[in-house]
Write a structure and sequence with these properties.
137 residues, 8 strands, 3-stranded antiparallel β-sheet, Jelly Rolls, YjbQ-like_sf, UPF0047_YjbQ-like, Secondary thiamine-phosphate synthase enzyme
Length: 137
C-alpha cells in the first residue's frame, strides 16, 4: 500500500539548499510502520531540482552552485528568456540535476548515508516556493 503527499518547500532564492529536515517533517505520517520501503520525491517545476549530497560542510553547496554556473553559464546566448535572463539557464540546469530522487526507508527512517542530505537546487535568482510530491512505497 502506498502513501503520497504534495507539499510546498519554503521560499528560497538561487543556490543549493539543504532541505532534509523540512522534507522529513512533511513525510512523518507516511514513514510510520514502514520497515522496508522507498521514498520518491518529485519536484513539480522546470527551474529547480532535487539531489542528494554532502550535508555537513556548507561550502559544498556553494561549490555546487559555482560548478553549475560554470557548466551552464547565464552569459550564453539563450533564446528563451520570457521570464528573465535566468529562464533557459534554469531549465537546462534542472534537466542536468533532475526532477526526482529516491531514498530507501528502513525501520521508519530515511536510510541516508552519514554525510548525506536532500538538496533543493534553486536556479532562479528571485526566491520561489516549490511543490514536491512525496510517494512512499
Amino acid at each position: 500500500m502506498g502513501w503520497q503527499k504534495t507539499f510546498t518547500l519554503s521560499k528560497r532564492a538561487k543556490g543549493c539548499h539543504l532541505v532534509t529536515e523540512e522534507v522529513a517533517s512533511q513525510i512523518q505520517a507516511g514513514l510510520l510502520g514502514v520497515e522496508v520501503g522507498m521514498l520518491f520525491l518529485f519536484i513539480q517545476h522546470t527551474s529547480a531540482a532535487l539531489t542528494v549530497n554532502e550535508n555537513f560542510d556548507k561550502d559544498v553547496r556553494k561549490d555546487m552552485d559555482m560548478a553549475l554556473d560554470t557548466i551552464v553559464p547565464e552569459s550564453l546566448d539563450w533564446r528563451h528568456t520570457d521570464e528573465g535572463p535566468d529562464d533557459s539557464v534554469s531549465h537546462t540546469k534542472a534537466s542536468l540535476v533532475g526532477t526526482s530522487i529516491s531514498i530507501p526507508i528502513t525501520n521508519g527512517q530515511l536510510n541516508l548515508g552519514t554525510w548525506q542530505g536532500i538538496y533543493l537546487t534553486e536556479f532562479r535568482h528571485v526566491a520561489h516556493t516549490r511543490r514536491v510530491v512525496a510517494t512512499i512505497l
